[in-house]
Structures are given as C-alpha cells and as structure tokens.
Amino acid sequence: MNECHTFKLLDDIPKIHIAIKMGCNVICPFLPAKHTEDWGLEDPTGKSDEEFINTAKIIEDRIKDLANRIKNKQIDLDK
User: Fold this and answer.
1) What GO molecular function annotation could you give as one example from this UniProt entry (predicted)?
2) Can you say whether the dihedral through the CA atoms of 79, 38, 15, 32 is positive or negative?
3) Which of 2, 13, 54, 74 has its CA 20 to 30 A from that of 65?
C-alpha cells in the first residue's frame, strides 16, 4: 500500500441521504441513510461482455428511475 493512503472508519464517512446496495451476493457494511435500496443484481464477474453490458444497462435504468422518484417526491429525504 502506498504510504500516502490512509484508511477511514465508517464513522468518518459523512452522513448520506441515499444508500444503494447492488446485491451481487456481497455483504455490505451498514451505512445509516435516509433511504436505502437493495437492487439485488447478479454479479457479472466471469460472465460474457454481453452480461456486463446488460448489468450496466439495468443499473443505468434504475438510476434514472431513482432520480425520477426523487424528483417527484416519492422518496422522502427530509426525514
């Protein structure tokens, strides 16, 4: 590891409004957030380029949907 790099504790991370868990059979640390979603995606590691592209497209579509829900006040970030 480069001597310039330092590790941060989860407590050192600024408070977040939205946390998205991708799934991929990975255990994520608990991040306190006003809104959390688990998208339950399959990990495309070791799969074809087409699978990677498909996963990227799913993520893109879900980000657009999330942005629309925020814009339309369907997600309450004021709590």
Assistant:
1) arsenate reductase (glutaredoxin) activity
2) positive
3) 13
How many angstroms separate the CA atoms of 5 and 25, rounded? 28
Cα dihedral 1, 24, 27, 11 in deg (nearest 10): 60
Instruction: Give the whole-angstrom CA distance, residue 32 versus residue 17.
Output: 8
User: Quick one: pLDDT at residue 3?
Assistant: 67
Output 24 or 60, whichever has higher pLDDT. Answer: 60
DSSP result, the chain: --TT-----GGGSPPEEEEEEEETT-PPPP--EEEEEEEEEPP-TTS-HHHHHHHHHHHHHHHHHHHHHHHTT-S----
How many Cβ atoms sit within 10 Å of the Cβ of residue 48? 9
